[in-house]
């Protein structure tokens, strides 16, 4: 089973994440940021990943440290669960509509991290979640999981756009981690 259990404790945050990439979309998530919890539940459900996140942070300051650190730990958990990535499809993509919004996500689990995100938000927050943290969250994931990801979204409603991005990431990741063979999918022989 491709599973990981990662903890991170700093002076600003305390995070425990359990991830099962071969799950059933069951989640138990508590970050203290309601909209963020909703997005992480959607990621779990649409990726068929079992995900437990227990996180506390200095929300009295703002949501930056907690969202960033959850991205770091989730990225580490993805990398740990995948191990050497032997046999995986490596590439995945998804186009996810949500009412007027449409998100496109393409990714490569190829050992090099890079993020291109084309997204603009009208409001500074959705609930208590800062919209500027969308890019930073995905940067934290891809840097720690060594994923190259290109994503874009358009629409009128920030809630719909962000949710379509999280679901798009889930579907693209699910497709990229499918086991298709035994070897490493690279002409170099390693990722």
From TrEMBL:
Q: Which reaction does it catalyse?
A: D-erythro-1-(imidazol-4-yl)glycerol 3-phosphate = 3-(imidazol-4-yl)-2-oxopropyl phosphate + H2O
Judging by the UniProt lineage, the source's domain of life is: Archaea
Which InterPro entries does the entry mention? IGPD_sf, ImidazoleglycerolP_deHydtase, ImidazoleglycerP_deHydtase_CS, Ribosomal_Su5_D2-typ_SF
Q: Which Gene3D superfamilies match?
A: Imidazole glycerol phosphate dehydratase, domain 1
Q: Which Pfam families match?
A: IGPD (PF00475)
Species the sequence originates in:
Methanomethylovorans hollandica (strain DSM 15978 / NBRC 107637 / DMS1)
**Cellular component, GO annotation:** cytoplasm
Instruction: Establish whether keyword Kinase is in the entry.
Output: no
**Lyase in keyword set:** yes
UniProt main location, coarse:
cytoplasm
Please give the biological process terms from Gene Ontology that the record holds.
Answer: L-histidine biosynthetic process
Q: In what pathway does it function?
A: Amino-acid biosynthesis; L-histidine biosynthesis; L-histidine from 5-phospho-alpha-D-ribose 1-diphosphate: step 6/9
The similarity comment for this entry is: Belongs to the imidazoleglycerol-phosphate dehydratase family.
What gene is it encoded by?
hisB
Query: What is the annotated localization of this protein?
Result: Cytoplasm
SUPFAM superfamilies according to UniProt: Ribosomal protein S5 domain 2-like
Keywords, in A-Z order = Amino-acid biosynthesis, Cytoplasm, Histidine biosynthesis, Lyase
E.C. number(s) listed in UniProt: 4.2.1.19
**What HAMAP family does this protein's entry cite?**
HisB
GO molecular function, a single term: imidazoleglycerol-phosphate dehydratase activity
For this entry, the protein name equals: Imidazoleglycerol-phosphate dehydratase
């Amino acid at each position: 089973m491709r599973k990981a259990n990662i903890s991170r404790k700093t002076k600003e945050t305390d995070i425990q994440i359990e991830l099962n990439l071969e799950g059933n979309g069951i989640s138990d998530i508590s970050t203290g940021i309601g909209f963020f919890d909703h997005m992480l539940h959607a990621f779990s459900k649409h990726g068929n990943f079992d995900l437990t996140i227990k996180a506390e942070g200095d929300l009295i300051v703002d949501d930056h440290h907690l969202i960033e650190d959850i991205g770091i730990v989730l990225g580490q958990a993805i990398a740990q669960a995948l191990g050497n990535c032997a046999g995986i499809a490596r590439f995945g993509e998804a186009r996810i509509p949500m009412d007027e919004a449409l998100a496109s996500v393409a990714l490569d689990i190829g050992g090099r991290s890079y993020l291109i995100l084309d997204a603009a938000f009208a409001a500074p927050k959705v609930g208590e979640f800062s919209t500027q943290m969308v890019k930073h969250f995905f940067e934290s994931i891809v840097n720690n999981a060594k994923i190259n990801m290109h994503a874009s979204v358009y629409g009128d409603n920030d809630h719909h756009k962000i949710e379509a991005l999280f679901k798009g990431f889930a579907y693209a990741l699910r497709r990229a981690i499918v086991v298709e063979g035994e070897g490493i999918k690279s002409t170099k022989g390693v990722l």
